[in-house]
Amino acid sequence: MTQERPKAKKICIIGLGYVGLPLAVEFAKYRPVIGFDINADRIAELSQGVDRTKELDRQDLKQAKQLRLTSDIAEIAEATTYIVTVPTPIDNTRRPDLRPLLSASRAVGQVLKPGDTVIYESTVFPGATEEECVPLLEDTSGLVLNRDFGVGYSPERINPGDKTRRLPDIVKITSGSTPETAAKVDALYAEIVTAGTYKAESIRVAEAAKVIENSQRDINIALINELAMIFNRMGIDTEAVLRAAGTKWNFLKFRPGLVGGHCIGVDPYYLTHKAQQLGYHPEILLSGRRLNDGMGAYVAQQMIKAMLKRRLHVVDARVLVMGLTFKENCPDLRNTRVVDVIEGLRDFGVAVDIYDPCADPAEAQTEYGLELTSKPGLGVYDGIIVAVAHDEFTAMGAEGIRAFGKDDTLLYDLKYVLSADQADLRL
């Protein structure tokens, strides 16, 4: 007689954004999943098969037959594992904003039961899970960590807009508050991650590993940005230098540019915040952040200088900025540094139009007070800045992009969409 396979226990994903939704859909292939989000409109859209992040299409959502969506906290109580994937942004003073994470912890604490497990995926500073989240779980539930429930940490590694490296294709770091919980968390993710898992020695190690991934990229990009500034003064094409240097096997292939988004432009501040709390002032991390945060203003100044050299009238000149999202082929506007370029140009009296077919016009208005143009005019712009390398822009080529400008339009290519001889300015 064949022994019946035990029924998989139900899990709940808290937060259905770029990280949580793909996770919920992937787990729903193997076990029942409750997808929870406080945004009722988001739940309604997903129920209709619409994902505004464009990470998943209608067919992906349709195939998630074991996924139940809700914005009612009472409906998640039947789960035995809770995975928290809410945003961890920074505030206006560049300090960690843990409010979404702490709010989610309180919500989970309301339904937490003996034997349950809570896993965090949100990027935090080392120690945040055990020092900030666990006390809320205990206070709200009346339970005790490692006696009544376990906690794990498995940092997200989602790359928005990347259709090649998906969730199952990226090695997953796992950890737990006890060896038993760590093994449980690792086995859970092994169900869906074909690339394999890596069980870290502790939750703090896993937290630190995540926060330095993007800190390392931030510093490397800052170096290339500074080199681009130097080469610009020398009249040397930066891309040509990088191509030549890249022929050596161990040269890291980074490019200059604007550093935004919810990861690279944010995560280093979580680490520097914790370091400063401990009495250490991190110099390299913060200097890299300062340099990268200043790139938008630098780009605007370079554009203005080039216009003046061409004897173009700057005040009331019309410039088209192509792209507003923080990266190519992605609708995510969070922490986009293109806004710094726009503000820098407007400070000089330039009239700026913004064109981005991937961005949501309503979100651009709500988040930044910016109005998107749905169709730029032809032959009307004194300058054009290609700020984001959307496939649609790349397909236009130099001729298609220049068609938006006047005969003497100044074309600034930030993303190397065009060759060196097709653009007037490049980083």
Summarize the structure.
With 427 residues, the protein is an alpha/beta fold. It has helices at residues 20-27, 40-47, 58-63, 99-111, 128-141, 179-190, 203-234, 238-245, 267-277, 283-293, 295-309, 338-347, 361-368, 391-402, and strands at residues 11-14, 33-36, 67-70, 81-84, 117-120, 150-153, 172-174, 197-199, 318-322, 351-355, 381-386, 405-413, 425-426.
Protein traits:
39% helix; single chain; 13% strand; alpha/beta; disordered N terminus; 6-stranded parallel sheet; 427 residues; 14 helices
Write a structural description.
- The structure is a single chain.
- The protein is an alpha/beta fold.
- 39% of the residues lie in helices and 13% in strands.
- The protein is built from 14 helices and 13 strands.
- The protein has helices at residues 20-27, 40-47, 58-63, 99-111, 128-141, 179-190, 203-234, 238-245, 267-277, 283-293, 295-309, 338-347, 361-368, 391-402; strands spanning 11-14, 33-36, 67-70, 81-84, 117-120, 150-153, 172-174, 197-199, 318-322, 351-355, 381-386, 405-413, 425-426.
- It has a 6-stranded parallel β-sheet, sandwiched between helices. Strands 10-9-11-12-13 form a 5-stranded parallel β-sheet, with helices on both faces.
- Helix 14 (391-402) links the parallel strand 11 and strand 12.
